[in-house]
Amino acid sequence: MKVFLVEDSAIIRERLVALLGTISRVETVGQAASADEAVRGILDTRPDTVVLDIQLEQGTGFDVLRGLREHDAKVDVLMLTNHPSGPYRRTAERLGVRHIFDKTTEFERVRDILAARAARQNSSCPEEVIS
Length: 131
Prior knowledge:
Layout: E1 2-6, H1 10-20, E2 27-32, H2 35-45, E3 49-52, H3 61-70, E4 76-81, H4 86-94, E5 99-102, H5 103-123
Parallel strand pairs: 1-2, 1-3, 3-4, 4-5
């Protein structure tokens, strides 16, 4: 499974890369810190999943979601943010985000969700040998 990371903090991106590196058959295919860079990178790499923050260096995660929608890009988005509730949650859900996690208390859940998805994806590919 291919994953693209959109996060303005280099430290958090490094932590996510390390976390995802522990999941079999998950590959980080790109990273971005701004909305425009993220949309371009996602369209270029066509990941299965995007891990997205709301606050970015330039723009927001919502700008990324709108940009992807304009290009009719179909990608699953997990939002990992310091703003997981209230109007942020409602806007994210309206723009197609299925999972929203609080960075301070639910960081590890991203790994759990992606590990489960990778396992399901791998089990549905009979031509691959699963070890």
